[in-house]
Amino acid sequence: MTSMELLARLVAFDTTSRNSNLALIDFVRDYLDRLGVPSHLVTDETGGKANLYATIGRGDCGGLMLSGHTDCVPVDGQNWSADPFTLIERDGRCFGRGTADMKAFIACALALVPEFLARPADAVPVHLAFSYDEEIGMIGAKRLIAQMRDMPVQPRRCIVGEPTNMQVVVAHKGKLSVRCEVRGLECHSALTQNGVNAIEGAAEVIVYLKAMARRLREQGPFDSDFTPPYGTVHTGVIKGGIALNVVPKECSFSFEFRHLPQQDPVALFDEVKRHAETVLLPEMRAVFPGAAFIWHPLSDYPALIEAEDKSFAQAARAFCGCLGLAPGKVSFGTEGGLYQQLGIAAIVCGPGSIEQAHKPDEYIEVGQIIACEDFLRRLVLSPVAVA
User: Fold this and answer.
1) Angle subtended by helix axes 3-12 and 366-380, to nearest 10
2) What is the CATH number of domain 176-301?
3) Catalytic residue among 71, 204, 223, 365
4) From the candidates 101, 133, 134, 365, which is the catalytic residue?
5) What's the mean pLDDT when you consider all of the chain?
6) 0.70 exceeded by the pTM?
7) pLDDT (tens digit per residue) in 24-64
8) Is 188 in contact with 246 (CB distance < 8 Å)?
9) Which residues pair with 89 in a beta bridge?
10) Active-site residue 71, yes or no?
11) Which of 59, 88, 123, 380 has the most CB atoms within 10 Å of its CB?
Protein backbone atom coordinates (compact mmCIF):
# COMPACT_ATOMS: atom_id res chain seq x y z
CA MET A 1 0.00 0.00 0.00
CA THR A 2 1.15 3.54 -0.70
CA SER A 3 1.53 6.23 1.93
CA MET A 4 -1.58 7.97 0.63
CA GLU A 5 -3.64 4.78 0.78
CA LEU A 6 -2.41 4.07 4.28
CA LEU A 7 -3.07 7.63 5.41
CA ALA A 8 -6.66 7.38 4.19
CA ARG A 9 -7.13 4.18 6.19
CA LEU A 10 -5.54 5.65 9.33
CA VAL A 11 -7.55 8.87 9.21
CA ALA A 12 -10.77 6.85 8.93
CA PHE A 13 -10.23 5.51 12.45
CA ASP A 14 -11.60 7.98 14.99
CA THR A 15 -8.78 7.68 17.50
CA THR A 16 -9.67 10.75 19.53
CA SER A 17 -7.95 10.15 22.85
CA ARG A 18 -11.25 9.50 24.66
CA ASN A 19 -11.83 6.54 22.31
CA SER A 20 -10.12 3.17 21.91
CA ASN A 21 -7.36 2.98 19.31
CA LEU A 22 -7.58 -0.80 18.96
CA ALA A 23 -9.21 -0.78 15.53
CA LEU A 24 -6.28 1.19 14.12
CA ILE A 25 -3.74 -0.94 15.98
CA ASP A 26 -5.38 -4.14 14.70
CA PHE A 27 -5.21 -2.78 11.16
CA VAL A 28 -1.49 -2.01 11.53
CA ARG A 29 -0.78 -5.37 13.12
CA ASP A 30 -2.59 -7.21 10.31
CA TYR A 31 -0.74 -5.15 7.70
CA LEU A 32 2.61 -6.06 9.27
CA ASP A 33 1.59 -9.71 9.64
CA ARG A 34 0.93 -9.92 5.91
CA LEU A 35 4.48 -8.69 5.34
CA GLY A 36 5.89 -11.24 7.77
CA VAL A 37 6.70 -8.72 10.52
CA PRO A 38 5.54 -9.79 14.01
CA SER A 39 4.42 -7.10 16.42
CA HIS A 40 3.93 -6.86 20.16
CA LEU A 41 1.07 -5.00 21.82
CA VAL A 42 1.33 -3.24 25.17
CA THR A 43 -2.18 -2.49 26.42
CA ASP A 44 -3.51 -0.16 29.06
CA GLU A 45 -5.10 -1.40 32.29
CA THR A 46 -8.50 -1.86 30.63
CA GLY A 47 -7.28 -3.59 27.49
CA GLY A 48 -9.11 -0.95 25.46
CA LYS A 49 -6.01 0.81 24.16
CA ALA A 50 -2.65 -0.44 22.99
CA ASN A 51 0.83 0.52 21.88
CA LEU A 52 2.34 -1.45 19.02
CA TYR A 53 6.03 -2.31 18.89
CA ALA A 54 7.59 -4.18 15.98
CA THR A 55 11.11 -4.95 14.82
CA ILE A 56 12.06 -5.25 11.16
CA GLY A 57 15.25 -7.23 10.79
CA ARG A 58 17.63 -8.71 13.33
CA GLY A 59 16.95 -8.41 17.03
CA ASP A 60 20.46 -8.53 18.44
CA CYS A 61 21.45 -4.88 18.01
CA GLY A 62 19.98 -1.46 18.58
CA GLY A 63 19.10 0.16 15.30
CA LEU A 64 16.64 2.94 14.62
CA MET A 65 13.15 3.40 16.07
CA LEU A 66 10.41 5.31 14.25
CA SER A 67 7.99 6.68 16.82
CA GLY A 68 4.49 8.02 16.34
CA HIS A 69 1.29 8.40 18.34
CA THR A 70 -2.00 7.05 17.03
CA ASP A 71 -4.41 9.28 18.96
CA CYS A 72 -5.71 12.65 17.87
CA VAL A 73 -7.52 15.59 19.45
CA PRO A 74 -11.31 16.06 19.32
CA VAL A 75 -13.20 17.76 16.52
CA ASP A 76 -16.06 18.82 18.81
CA GLY A 77 -17.23 22.36 18.13
CA GLN A 78 -14.86 22.85 15.21
CA ASN A 79 -16.19 24.08 11.88
CA TRP A 80 -14.96 21.45 9.43
CA SER A 81 -15.88 21.83 5.76
CA ALA A 82 -16.14 18.03 5.34
CA ASP A 83 -16.09 14.82 7.36
CA PRO A 84 -12.87 15.04 9.42
CA PHE A 85 -12.44 11.25 9.34
CA THR A 86 -12.51 10.97 5.56
CA LEU A 87 -9.28 11.89 3.80
CA ILE A 88 -9.86 14.46 1.08
CA GLU A 89 -7.11 15.49 -1.34
CA ARG A 90 -7.49 18.92 -2.88
CA ASP A 91 -4.99 21.30 -4.47
CA GLY A 92 -1.99 19.34 -3.24
CA ARG A 93 -3.25 19.08 0.33
CA CYS A 94 -4.68 16.14 2.25
CA PHE A 95 -7.40 17.16 4.72
CA GLY A 96 -8.50 15.13 7.74
CA ARG A 97 -8.08 14.87 11.48
CA GLY A 98 -4.61 13.59 12.31
CA THR A 99 -3.11 14.17 8.88
CA ALA A 100 -0.43 16.50 10.24
CA ASP A 101 -0.47 15.30 13.84
CA MET A 102 0.70 12.66 13.13
CA LYS A 103 -0.77 9.87 11.04
CA ALA A 104 1.08 10.89 7.88
CA PHE A 105 4.39 9.93 9.48
CA ILE A 106 2.99 6.56 10.54
CA ALA A 107 1.66 6.02 7.01
CA CYS A 108 5.08 6.78 5.51
CA ALA A 109 6.84 4.41 7.89
CA LEU A 110 4.39 1.62 7.12
CA ALA A 111 4.56 2.17 3.37
CA LEU A 112 8.33 1.71 3.47
CA VAL A 113 8.27 -1.58 5.41
CA PRO A 114 8.67 -3.67 2.22
CA GLU A 115 11.79 -1.67 1.37
CA PHE A 116 13.13 -2.08 4.89
CA LEU A 117 12.60 -5.84 4.57
CA ALA A 118 14.56 -5.92 1.32
CA ARG A 119 17.78 -4.77 2.99
CA PRO A 120 20.59 -7.29 3.62
CA ALA A 121 19.95 -9.75 6.43
CA ASP A 122 22.78 -8.28 8.52
CA ALA A 123 21.41 -4.72 8.32
CA VAL A 124 20.64 -3.13 11.66
CA PRO A 125 16.95 -3.25 12.56
CA VAL A 126 14.22 -0.70 12.18
CA HIS A 127 11.73 -0.60 15.05
CA LEU A 128 8.21 0.79 14.90
CA ALA A 129 6.71 2.26 18.09
CA PHE A 130 3.12 3.50 17.77
CA SER A 131 1.57 4.74 21.01
CA TYR A 132 -1.79 5.72 22.46
CA ASP A 133 -2.87 8.79 24.45
CA GLU A 134 0.06 11.03 23.63
CA GLU A 135 -2.29 14.00 23.41
CA ILE A 136 -3.38 13.66 27.03
CA GLY A 137 -0.05 13.15 28.75
CA MET A 138 2.18 10.69 26.86
CA ILE A 139 0.38 7.91 28.72
CA GLY A 140 0.95 5.12 26.21
CA ALA A 141 4.63 5.83 25.66
CA LYS A 142 5.27 5.76 29.41
CA ARG A 143 3.70 2.30 29.60
CA LEU A 144 5.65 1.10 26.57
CA ILE A 145 8.91 2.40 28.00
CA ALA A 146 8.27 0.55 31.26
CA GLN A 147 8.40 -2.68 29.26
CA MET A 148 11.26 -1.58 27.05
CA ARG A 149 13.47 -1.22 30.12
CA ASP A 150 13.48 -5.01 30.43
CA MET A 151 14.28 -5.68 26.78
CA PRO A 152 17.70 -7.29 26.27
CA VAL A 153 18.38 -4.93 23.35
CA GLN A 154 16.89 -1.47 23.01
CA PRO A 155 16.90 0.85 19.98
CA ARG A 156 19.93 3.07 19.87
CA ARG A 157 18.37 5.99 18.05
CA CYS A 158 14.88 7.33 17.47
CA ILE A 159 13.02 9.58 15.07
CA VAL A 160 9.83 11.03 16.56
CA GLY A 161 7.74 11.99 13.56
CA GLU A 162 5.82 14.96 14.95
CA PRO A 163 5.15 17.67 12.35
CA THR A 164 8.24 19.84 11.86
CA ASN A 165 7.99 20.58 8.12
CA MET A 166 10.72 17.95 7.72
CA GLN A 167 13.19 20.05 9.68
CA VAL A 168 15.32 18.34 12.32
CA VAL A 169 14.45 19.35 15.89
CA VAL A 170 17.06 18.52 18.54
CA ALA A 171 15.38 19.93 21.66
CA HIS A 172 11.97 20.84 23.01
CA LYS A 173 10.51 22.19 26.21
CA GLY A 174 9.11 19.97 28.95
CA LYS A 175 5.73 20.34 30.62
CA LEU A 176 4.16 19.95 34.04
CA SER A 177 0.41 20.53 34.46
CA VAL A 178 -1.58 20.58 37.69
CA ARG A 179 -5.18 21.00 38.83
CA CYS A 180 -5.65 22.83 42.12
CA GLU A 181 -8.81 22.30 44.18
CA VAL A 182 -9.57 25.10 46.65
CA ARG A 183 -11.85 24.38 49.60
CA GLY A 184 -13.47 27.21 51.47
CA LEU A 185 -16.65 27.84 53.47
CA GLU A 186 -19.91 29.01 51.95
CA CYS A 187 -22.21 31.62 53.47
CA HIS A 188 -24.56 34.42 52.45
CA SER A 189 -22.73 37.06 50.44
CA ALA A 190 -24.03 39.75 52.79
CA LEU A 191 -21.93 38.16 55.54
CA THR A 192 -18.64 37.53 53.78
CA GLN A 193 -16.75 37.72 57.04
CA ASN A 194 -18.29 34.36 58.01
CA GLY A 195 -17.10 32.53 54.92
CA VAL A 196 -13.95 31.65 52.99
CA ASN A 197 -14.24 32.48 49.31
CA ALA A 198 -12.68 29.62 47.34
CA ILE A 199 -12.77 31.58 44.09
CA GLU A 200 -10.81 34.42 45.66
CA GLY A 201 -8.29 31.94 47.05
CA ALA A 202 -7.88 30.48 43.57
CA ALA A 203 -7.62 33.96 42.07
CA GLU A 204 -4.77 34.90 44.39
CA VAL A 205 -2.82 31.81 43.33
CA ILE A 206 -3.55 32.56 39.67
CA VAL A 207 -2.28 36.12 40.14
CA TYR A 208 0.89 34.65 41.62
CA LEU A 209 1.22 32.34 38.61
CA LYS A 210 0.86 35.36 36.33
CA ALA A 211 3.62 37.12 38.25
CA MET A 212 5.83 34.06 37.76
CA ALA A 213 5.09 34.19 34.03
CA ARG A 214 6.15 37.85 33.90
CA ARG A 215 9.32 37.10 35.85
CA LEU A 216 10.33 34.30 33.50
CA ARG A 217 9.56 36.48 30.48
CA GLU A 218 11.63 39.37 31.81
CA GLN A 219 14.42 37.65 33.77
CA GLY A 220 14.73 34.24 32.15
CA PRO A 221 16.57 31.94 31.98
CA PHE A 222 16.61 32.32 28.21
CA ASP A 223 17.41 30.19 25.20
CA SER A 224 17.06 32.22 22.01
CA ASP A 225 16.60 29.09 19.89
CA PHE A 226 13.13 28.60 21.39
CA THR A 227 9.99 30.61 20.59
CA PRO A 228 9.33 32.11 23.05
CA PRO A 229 12.89 31.98 24.43
CA TYR A 230 11.81 31.46 28.06
CA GLY A 231 9.65 29.09 30.10
CA THR A 232 5.95 29.88 30.22
CA VAL A 233 3.20 29.66 32.84
CA HIS A 234 -0.43 29.40 31.81
CA THR A 235 -3.79 29.00 33.59
CA GLY A 236 -6.29 27.45 31.20
CA VAL A 237 -9.37 26.29 33.15
CA ILE A 238 -11.24 27.61 36.19
CA LYS A 239 -14.55 26.45 37.70
CA GLY A 240 -16.36 27.54 40.84
CA GLY A 241 -19.39 29.11 42.46
CA ILE A 242 -23.12 28.43 42.28
CA ALA A 243 -24.70 31.90 42.62
CA LEU A 244 -23.60 35.50 43.01
CA ASN A 245 -25.15 35.81 46.45
CA VAL A 246 -23.39 32.73 47.82
CA VAL A 247 -19.76 32.87 48.96
CA PRO A 248 -18.32 29.87 47.04
CA LYS A 249 -16.96 26.95 49.03
CA GLU A 250 -15.26 25.27 46.08
CA CYS A 251 -13.17 26.29 43.11
CA SER A 252 -10.72 24.48 40.89
CA PHE A 253 -8.29 25.66 38.26
CA SER A 254 -5.69 24.05 36.03
CA PHE A 255 -2.32 25.46 35.09
CA GLU A 256 0.86 24.39 33.35
CA PHE A 257 4.56 25.10 33.15
CA ARG A 258 6.32 24.68 29.79
CA HIS A 259 9.92 24.78 30.87
CA LEU A 260 13.28 25.07 29.17
CA PRO A 261 15.50 21.96 29.34
CA GLN A 262 17.67 23.55 32.04
CA GLN A 263 14.73 24.49 34.28
CA ASP A 264 13.37 22.33 37.10
CA PRO A 265 9.55 22.25 36.85
CA VAL A 266 9.22 20.76 40.34
CA ALA A 267 10.97 23.79 41.79
CA LEU A 268 8.52 26.07 39.97
CA PHE A 269 5.56 24.06 41.26
CA ASP A 270 6.95 24.02 44.80
CA GLU A 271 7.20 27.80 44.70
CA VAL A 272 3.48 28.09 43.93
CA LYS A 273 2.50 25.59 46.63
CA ARG A 274 4.68 27.38 49.18
CA HIS A 275 3.02 30.72 48.45
CA ALA A 276 -0.48 29.23 48.65
CA GLU A 277 0.11 27.26 51.83
CA THR A 278 2.28 29.66 53.82
CA VAL A 279 0.95 33.06 52.72
CA LEU A 280 -2.70 32.51 51.77
CA LEU A 281 -3.85 29.48 53.74
CA PRO A 282 -3.29 30.85 57.30
CA GLU A 283 -5.74 33.71 56.65
CA MET A 284 -8.30 31.28 55.24
CA ARG A 285 -7.95 28.84 58.15
CA ALA A 286 -8.34 31.63 60.69
CA VAL A 287 -11.98 31.66 59.58
CA PHE A 288 -12.40 27.99 58.63
CA PRO A 289 -9.86 25.37 59.78
CA GLY A 290 -10.95 23.05 56.98
CA ALA A 291 -9.83 25.41 54.24
CA ALA A 292 -7.32 23.79 51.91
CA PHE A 293 -5.43 23.82 48.63
CA ILE A 294 -5.36 20.31 47.16
CA TRP A 295 -3.01 19.66 44.26
CA HIS A 296 -3.69 17.04 41.57
CA PRO A 297 -0.93 16.38 39.02
CA LEU A 298 -2.45 16.10 35.53
CA SER A 299 0.43 15.29 33.23
CA ASP A 300 4.12 15.79 32.75
CA TYR A 301 6.82 14.98 30.28
CA PRO A 302 10.51 15.81 30.21
CA ALA A 303 12.21 18.23 27.89
CA LEU A 304 14.25 16.86 25.01
CA ILE A 305 17.85 17.96 25.55
CA GLU A 306 20.19 18.53 22.64
CA ALA A 307 22.66 15.64 22.58
CA GLU A 308 26.39 16.19 22.93
CA ASP A 309 26.96 13.61 20.18
CA LYS A 310 25.61 15.42 17.14
CA SER A 311 26.36 12.74 14.51
CA PHE A 312 22.80 11.42 14.39
CA ALA A 313 21.24 14.86 14.06
CA GLN A 314 23.79 15.88 11.43
CA ALA A 315 23.07 12.78 9.34
CA ALA A 316 19.35 13.39 9.60
CA ARG A 317 19.76 17.04 8.62
CA ALA A 318 21.75 16.03 5.56
CA PHE A 319 19.11 13.54 4.45
CA CYS A 320 16.19 15.93 4.90
CA GLY A 321 17.97 18.72 3.06
CA CYS A 322 18.29 21.12 6.00
CA LEU A 323 22.01 20.80 6.66
CA GLY A 324 22.49 24.50 6.09
CA LEU A 325 19.94 25.41 8.75
CA ALA A 326 20.56 25.60 12.47
CA PRO A 327 19.17 22.65 14.43
CA GLY A 328 15.65 23.44 15.59
CA LYS A 329 14.18 23.77 19.06
CA VAL A 330 10.43 23.87 19.65
CA SER A 331 8.08 24.71 22.50
CA PHE A 332 5.63 21.86 21.94
CA GLY A 333 6.33 18.48 23.49
CA THR A 334 6.90 15.00 22.12
CA GLU A 335 7.68 11.52 23.36
CA GLY A 336 11.33 12.15 22.49
CA GLY A 337 12.29 13.30 25.99
CA LEU A 338 10.92 10.08 27.47
CA TYR A 339 12.94 7.94 25.07
CA GLN A 340 16.00 10.04 25.77
CA GLN A 341 15.66 9.28 29.48
CA LEU A 342 15.75 5.59 28.53
CA GLY A 343 19.12 6.17 26.89
CA ILE A 344 17.90 6.33 23.30
CA ALA A 345 19.25 9.22 21.22
CA ALA A 346 16.15 11.02 19.94
CA ILE A 347 15.40 13.78 17.48
CA VAL A 348 12.10 15.05 16.09
CA CYS A 349 11.46 15.23 12.35
CA GLY A 350 8.20 14.67 10.55
CA PRO A 351 5.95 15.86 7.74
CA GLY A 352 3.47 18.69 8.08
CA SER A 353 3.24 21.81 10.17
CA ILE A 354 2.38 22.06 13.86
CA GLU A 355 0.44 25.19 12.89
CA GLN A 356 -2.12 22.93 11.19
CA ALA A 357 -2.44 20.56 14.14
CA HIS A 358 -5.58 20.62 16.34
CA LYS A 359 -7.42 22.95 13.92
CA PRO A 360 -10.54 22.46 11.82
CA ASP A 361 -9.67 21.37 8.28
CA GLU A 362 -6.31 20.08 9.47
CA TYR A 363 -4.18 19.21 6.45
CA ILE A 364 -0.80 18.10 5.23
CA GLU A 365 0.78 18.93 1.90
CA VAL A 366 1.38 16.00 -0.43
CA GLY A 367 4.91 17.24 -0.98
CA GLN A 368 5.62 16.79 2.72
CA ILE A 369 4.57 13.15 2.52
CA ILE A 370 6.88 12.59 -0.44
CA ALA A 371 9.73 14.33 1.38
CA CYS A 372 9.17 12.16 4.46
CA GLU A 373 9.30 8.96 2.41
CA ASP A 374 12.54 10.05 0.79
CA PHE A 375 14.04 11.07 4.13
CA LEU A 376 13.21 7.78 5.85
CA ARG A 377 14.39 5.74 2.88
CA ARG A 378 17.77 7.47 2.81
CA LEU A 379 18.15 7.52 6.58
CA VAL A 380 17.48 3.80 7.09
CA LEU A 381 20.02 2.92 4.41
CA SER A 382 22.68 5.03 6.17
CA PRO A 383 25.09 3.14 8.43
CA VAL A 384 25.92 6.41 10.19
CA ALA A 385 22.32 7.10 11.09
CA VAL A 386 21.19 3.72 12.35
CA ALA A 387 24.37 1.93 13.50
Assistant:
1) 110
2) 3.30.70.360
3) 71
4) 134
5) 95
6) yes
7) 999 999 999 999 999 999 999 999 999 999 999 988 889 99
8) yes
9) 94
10) yes
11) 380
